[in-house]
Amino acid sequence: MEGDRAAHLRGQRPSRQSRRSTFLGWVVATCLLTLHAVAAPAADQIKVERRNEVLALTWQDAEDTLQGVITPAEPHPGEPLRLTLSVGNIQGPPFEGGVTVAFSQEGVPGQVTRALKRDAVGWSTEFVPPETGAWDVDVRFLTSRPKALHAKFTVSEPGVPLIVWRTLLGLVGILVLVGVLRALTQREVPVEVPVEPPAGSPAEPSTEAPVDPPADR
Length: 217
Hints:
Layout (H helix, E strand, L loop, with lengths): L1 H38 L7 E5 L2 E7 L3 E8 L9 E9 L9 E7 L6 E5 L6 E5 L5 E10 L3 E10 L6 H24 L32
Antiparallel strand pairs: 1-2, 2-3, 3-4, 4-7, 5-6, 5-8, 8-9
């Protein structure tokens, strides 16, 4: 009986190990899929990258592509920015339809909406953001099916221009140089103080020639 029971237990061990390995594999796969979903951008999210003095916009799916730029790369409140887009089909004739864009502060949808027509460079418009903060631009167009895409950018207060910093540094350097030169030219020369002979020392003989007394007449 004991031999049969041991044989029965030995037959069950691989099954338990197999279930445990399957469970661990399922947990690992779930974690990897969750991390990939968190790291990967949404299918309707336009990628925004700074390239020199512009913000480059890129997006693509299995049917269409979108590229564009926002200038300048650091938008400021009260100053116009320019959005230029290029929409294309991966297969089929070039896209010639209209594009609708909407600018809005984060959490306040559809503040400014523009319907754009294609011009010599694509689909372009200007917008003056009134306030600082995070802004959204929504892009909508119709190809084989409606597309609604979204991009994010930041409007910040203008900083001190680089030329101002360079001018200030140049002025500071000139002032330091002038101060050094003035210190060198106005340096006091030490005055030699005559040393008096100590008391009781013999007087130095006079170097004047003796004067003869007048002759008697």
